[in-house]
Design brief:
Blueprint (H helix, E strand, L loop, with lengths): L2 H16 L5 E12 L9 E17 L6 E6 L7 E4 L14 H12 L7 E7 L9 H17 L5 H16 L6 H8 L4 E6 L5 E5 L5 E11 L4 H18 L9 H6 L6 H25 L3 H17 L6 H13 L5 E7 L4 E9 L3 H16 L4 E5 L6 E3 L4
Parallel strand pairs: 3-5
Antiparallel strand pairs: 1-2, 1-12, 2-5, 2-6, 3-4, 6-7, 8-10, 8-11, 9-10
């Protein structure tokens, strides 16, 4: 479904539910990280891409001039939630979906930007729970809507940071900055190289329509808990301390090797992944900008093997997808493939020839189901545009 189709559908649903057409509409995309995994909290680089899957919000002023925001979701599980703007704001209960937009509204109010009461309907085709950043898409779509309602456009970096804070403070998720940055700053036919230390961004052109990204959702999520991520973060901090550095961003392979005897093996391997991934990411950006698909694909495989062996955040299902993709290889249209996201399930991303997508998808789907007994979900995307204001139309 195109963004135009999705917005038309959302506007029609809003009119049906609220009895009047929307006055404002906004959209923001999900994302896939092409390379640069578990580098963000080590002050490294990431290379995300906005995907052609969006969260759309349609809204109109509250009936009877009420100073109340009513948030509705097209998801059946998304119970409507109301915010009384005349009262101090606070999060809803733990795990409530409306905490994401509520946190953004709180951020605008804290900046003196009061939208007044409105009714909103949220509709999305960003897959939930697959590590494609449906939460950031919701936050950034909300912020874009509020810019339209208040008539005040935020600086893009401030907007991304406001959305990140909303996730921290209202949803209770200590996320990094990548998801919100790409949802705000994404541009059609470009990837985004983000320096997580300086927050400097660079648009990386990927205009050739003969190449696309194929995202495969394994449809598994192993519940190993946030404790595993906390352990790895602590191990990275331990390695940096032994190296005498504030973070692993400034570490080199040679310095790590020299310090190997002073580290536990697991700490050494965690650091080896991060240092290698920080090197691979800007290199991959240059190769993709130069349309060197083969060399970029090899870096994607190297990233996956490092995540599997040194960082130990892959799983049998993700490994199966990558191995099937490798077996297809360049003759069949696959340049490279890797797990993407935090790990232990979720999605793999493959750099593929656009005209071979159908055959590749069929092969991966059949072989994956045979190996795991699970049906994967796949879709293809070119680099998409970031957040945008839409013209309401029913």
């Amino acid at each position: 479904m195109t963004l135009s189709d999705l917005s038309t559908q959302t506007a029609a649903q809003f009119a049906q539910i609220c009895g009047r057409p929307p006055r404002w509409m906004a959209a923001a995309p999900g994302r896939v990280n092409v390379i640069g995994e578990h580098t963000d909290y080590n002050d490294g680089f990431v290379l995300p891409m906005a995907i052609e899957r969006y969260t759309v919000i349609a809204a109109a002023p509250a009936a009877n001039g009420a100073n109340r925001v009513t948030l509705r979701s097209s998801e059946k599980s998304g119970k409507p939630r109301a915010i009384d703007l005349s009262q101090p704001m606070k999060p809803f209960g733990k795990g409530v979906w409306a905490n994401y937009p509520a946190g953004v509204i709180a951020g605008f109010l804290a900046r003196g930007l009061a939208p007044g009461g409105f009714d909103a309907l949220i509709h999305s085709n960003v897959p939930l729970g697959g590590g494609l950043s449906s939460s950031a898409a919701l936050e950034v779509a909300t912020a874009t809507l509020l810019e339209t309602i208040t008539g005040h456009t935020l600086d893009p970096v401030d907007k991304a940071l406001l959305c990140q804070q909303a996730e921290h403070q209202y949803a209770g998720v200590p996320c990094g900055i990548m998801d919100q940055f790409i949802s705000v700053l994404g541009r059609k036919d470009h990837l985004l190289l983000l320096d997580c230390r300086s927050r400097k961004t660079e648009l990386v052109p990927m205009r050739d329509p003969s190449v696309s990204l194929l995202i495969t959702n394994t449809n598994v999520k192993h519940e190993l808990g946030s404790g595993e991520y906390a352990k790895r973060r602590a191990q990275c901090e331990a390695a940096a301390k032994i190296l005498g550095l504030a973070s692993l961003r400034d570490a080199t392979p040679a310095a790590l090797q020299q310090a190997k005897e002073r580290m536990e093996d697991v700490v050494f391997r965690r650091a080896r992944h991060v240092i290698g991934e920080i090197e691979r990411t800007p290199k991959a950006a240059r190769l993709l900008a130069a349309s060197d698909w083969s060399a970029a694909g090899q870096l994607m495989y190297a990233s996956h093997f490092s995540l599997r062996d040194d960082y130990e955040v892959s799983c049998a299902e993700l490994d199966a997808v990558v191995e099937i993709a490798r077996s297809i290889g360049e003759p069949g249209g696959v340049f490279g493939c890797r797990m993407t996201g935090g790990g232990f399930g979720g999605c793999a991303v493959a750099l593929v020839k656009t005209d071979a997508v159908d055959a590749i998808s069929k092969k991966i789907g059949e072989d994956y189901q045979r190996k795991t007994g699970i049906a994967a979900t796949m879709f293809v995307s070119r680099p998409a545009a970031g957040a945008t204001v839409l013209q309401p139309a029913v």
